[in-house]
Amino acid sequence: MTRTPVFFHVDLDAFYASVEQLDNPELLGTPVIVGASPGQRGVVAACSYEARAYGVHSAMPISEAARRCPHAAFRPVRMARYQEMSQEVMAVFERYSPELQQISVDEAFLNMTGTERLFGRPAETAARLKADVRSSLGLVISVGVGPSRYIAKLASAWSKPDGLHEVHPGEEADFVAGLALKDLWGVGGKTLRRLNDFGMHTVADLREKEPPELYRLFGKAAGDYLHAVSRGIDPGIYSGEAQSHSVSNETTFAHDVRERDVIESTILELCHGVVFRLLRHGLVSRTVTLKLRFSDFTTTTVRRTISEPVASTESLYRRVLAMLEEKWDGAREIRLLGVGVAQVEAKDEVLQGELFEGHDDRRRRVEQAALDVNSRFGKLGLTRARLLKPRTDDAEPDDTERDSE
């Protein structure tokens, strides 16, 4: 008998700001802005819902955020602390499904197909998961339930914050029809403006366009994507392997970028998250992947098998940069970056003792020590100096909150 697919998309609400409020209870219920300090050049990495009430949102210049909400508590980005809390949340998720696909520090998919006899109906299980995370970690999550990953992702944003929404099989097209074009994941500001320029202002307007016309207006990749998502069809963008086989992080920019320093800093941040997750689970890999999605929705994934297992953030970063040089000419605008490792294995099964310790081995031991410190004393927030620098681009990484949250 074929089982009906059931997927959860779980999103940590206002994650960075929520961790700051968790660590500093005096900030609960007050506006919190994570990023640069007032007077510095930089942007908002994340903000609490109390700050959003004043019109503050991610990727906003800090100067504008300070003007709109001068009484907010401004906090620096503490990536290591957020990684540590993310790991604890993912450990809770793993109790509900062996097929966990973490796509960023604050997002994950759970394949819940066939778990009804174990946990109950999907909506009941989602409510239990929300209560579990809140009671054990003090964090609030939104859960979307759907027959595909894409629909589940849209559903999780339906009633944020602290949301729970289920879309049943057969309801996908009607659910999407009730959304605004801007709420379709993957339709950013530039795409939305082009849709509007061509007379498409609603999902219904978009559905009226046949693929040949969409190809002419947007190109084949973007045309196929828009045709699919407007009908509630999963375009397959999250069809990667489950966590048991791969570890990856992705970042989607609020605006397409081609500034090299922004791209390299983002890649370093993604590598940092991937390696810390490998260390936490005692895993290694010899297969490195880089995913690029360009402004025209064309997507390419590069995979390389290397002779030695990934041993540190630095070693992964070097290899990913080399792969980037192969696939990016420096001119095309990028809308999504993803870094991962595949075919992961237990460390003890792969790493053989060497007579002399290599440079990457020493780096790995340093990062393992940092992970151990953060696990014991999370508020210290040990991380790389480069990742402490406030982001000066208009990127909206998956490791920060979306404006819809």
Percent of residues in beta strands: 15-25%
What top-tier CATH class of one domain fits best? Alpha Beta
- Unreliable sequence segments: 349-359, 371-405
**Considering DSSP H and I runs of 4 or more, what fraction of the residues is helical?**
40-55%
Choose one word for the global shape: globular
| Main β sheet profile | 5 strands, mixed
Give the gist of this structure:
This protein has 405 residues and is of the alpha+beta class. It has helices at 15-23, 49-52, 62-68, 79-93, 116-119, 122-137, 149-156, 172-177, 189-197, 203-207, 211-218, 220-229, 260-281, 313-327, 347-350, 359-376, 385-388; strands spanning 7-12, 32-35, 44-47, 73-75, 100-104, 107-111, 141-146, 164-166, 246-257, 283-284, 287-294, 299-305, 334-342, 345-346.
Keywords:
Dna Ligase, domain 1, 14 strands, five-stranded mixed β-sheet, alpha+beta, 405 residues, disordered C terminus, 40% helix, four-stranded antiparallel β-sheet, DNA polymerase, domain 1, 17 helices, single chain
3D structure, described in words:
It is a single chain. The chain has 405 residues and is an alpha+beta fold. Among the domains are: 173-229, DNA polymerase, domain 1 (Orthogonal Bundle); 246-388, Dna Ligase, domain 1. Helix content is 40%, strand content 19%. The chain has 17 helices and 14 strands. The chain has a five-stranded mixed sheet with strand order 5-6-1-7-8. Strand 2 (32-35) and strand 3 (44-47) form a beta hairpin. The longest helix has 22 residues, at 260-281. Residues 349-359 and 371-405 have low confidence and may be disordered.
